[in-house]
Predict the structure.
Amino acid sequence: MDIDLHCHSTASDGALAPREVVLRAHQQGVEVLSLTDHDTLEGLIEAQQAAQEVGIKLITGIEMSCLWGGATIHVLGYDFALDDPTLLAAVKDLHEGRWLRAQEIAKRLAAKGMPDALAGAQAIQAALGDSLNAPARPHFAQFLVNAGHVRDHAEAFRKWLGAGKIGDVKQHWPSFDDTMAVLTQAKASISLAHLYHYNFTRTKRRRLVQDFVNAGGHAIEVVNGMQPAEQVGTLSILAREFNLKVTAGSDFHLPRQWSELGKYRAIPDDLTPLFVHHSNNSL
């Protein structure tokens, strides 16, 4: 695909620096890209510079963590000003919250006989080129692998870091309503990310979409990488029912995992994309 609205760099939990993400996207034929790192804007200036060099249209983006119904969910914000004061203040709070979260993850792992997880995760993160932000669960997963506590990332998430496990720390996120208000005030276009990443019943998923619409949301992410086609179909039905636009993206974190930049299932033809790419490189 020539447009990718969901990817990550070393500014959060990706494996490539922002510049490298942009260059790789260009190599993959992407012409419109949004770097949507978790709870930070730090990679966007570097990404903008790289995008100008290779002729990619870069849309400012962020994937913000928040709490809804006791669960952590992610909301994608797009096309905002990098100097918006409300958004900058919210990101500062998220930055601090992520450090509290990382410290809590390490504390819980230590209680289970896996000490020094925070220092280990930070070392892995620094080796990837980022040491300013708090380490995220993929960094902890790699530490657990390196320390011999698990065989691979999949086991790390299955036993210790996945949803409902001891490393799934939620209490430091802002509320869904507050996050939506921040993005609205920043005049961002807002999409609800990967609804099938949450262990919700169909009724609860629909209730989240209704609350999202009530809070002024614009789109839902109907395609996230190479997710099953039946999930795309279900999310497409929700988009039609609630008259929402749609977004799609690879959710790229590192090469050869989940989905490559620009690679994801097609959006059904009858849905309206949040951003439309034209051959003259305008949106």
Remarks:
- The beta strands are 3-4, 32-35, 57-68, 71-78, 189-192, 219-224, 245-249.
- The first strand starts at residue 3 and ends at 4.
